[in-house]
Design a protein that fits this description.
The protein is α/β, with parallel strands linked by helices and about 270 residues long. About 35% of the residues lie in helices and about 15% in strands. Strands 1, 2, 3, 4, 5, 6, 7 and 8 form an eight-stranded mixed beta sheet that branches.
């Protein structure tokens, strides 16, 4: 299930894909008619969806900034990268520590096609892209891209941002994340976000139904079920919260809870 970024297979553009729908809702340009139709339908049932997605992205920026600046992390494994949106994770990390090393992982051929901007990191650091699936943690960890780029004997940040909502319960999302964390040494970190219906139950149920109508999974998780991803890890303050409440900046000051449907947290592996 792992491939490097050479010779990607062409995507099926007749079917909506979560990464391209996300790109469309955020105002990007890498999407097709099926993705636009899905995105319009989702915005219609919940107009705050773009706000929620932007806050999820902003969480990633703040989390990586903290990990690079305060925790001294210089290695990042980002799974579920999605369509490149600036600033990307490596731009945040290498902007603070140019020697930072990043491996991006995604299973969508469209993401693969647009991976080249992600590979242009700092001269001191290193950035690679791996085509692989989150559901194959062993394949990811064993891949030449990861092994050649990251020293897994040193603390590493595992970034799993807005990807576990697309795993079905049968995919064992908790076990999958745990196996990735288990492969990392003490002092590593997990940064994770997932969709929830707690803050806007009616609207997010309707959004999930729109995903389902188009053959996509969107699994909504409660606060308690989100916390379960961090079991056995030491959560950083303020714990698991709606993403705009995680160490907010001025841009998060007036964001209403009912407009954000993503929980997030950052935790250290003891």
């Amino acid at each position: 299930m792992t491939q490097d970024c050479e010779n990607p297979s062409p995507p099926d553009t007749s079917i909506a894909h979560p990464a391209r729908v996300y790109d469309y809702i955020l105002g990007g340009t890498t999407h097709h008619a099926a993705d636009r139709a899905a995105g319009r339908a989702m915005r219609e049932v919940w107009p705050s969806l773009p706000l929620s997605m932007r806050q999820n992205r902003a969480f990633m920026h703040r989390a990586v900034t903290h990990l690079a600046r305060a925790e001294g992390i210089r290695q990042y494994l980002d799974i579920g990268t999605g369509i490149p949106t600036r600033p990307s994770l490596h731009e945040v990390a290498q902007g603070i520590a140019p020697e930072s090393r990043v491996v991006y992982v995604d299973n969508d051929p469209t993401v693969l096609t647009h991976a080249r901007p992600l590979l242009l990191g700092s001269a001191q650091g290193h950035t690679r892209f791996l085509r692989a699936d989150l559901r194959d943690p062993a394949g990811i960890i064993a891949s030449p891209e990861v092994r050649a780029t990251l020293d897994l004997a040193r603390p590493t940040a595992l970034s799993v941002i807005a990807v576990v909502p697309f795993l079905k319960d049968a995919d064992d999302p908790y076990g999958t994340v745990r196996r990735l964390v288990d492969a990392l040494p003490s002092g590593s970190f997990l940064a994770l976000t997932t969709a929830t219906g707690d803050s806007a139950p009616r609207q997010m149920t309707a959004v999930a139904q729109e995903y389902a109508r188009r053959g996509m999974t969107l699994r909504l998780r409660s606060y308690e079920r989100t916390c379960a991803f961090f079991a056995g890890l030491d959560l950083l303050d303020p714990g698991v919260v709606l993403v705009h409440h995680w160490r907010p900046g001025d841009a998060q000051r007036d964001v209403p809870d009912y407009g954000v449907a993503m929980y997030g947290g950052v935790a250290r592996k003891p």
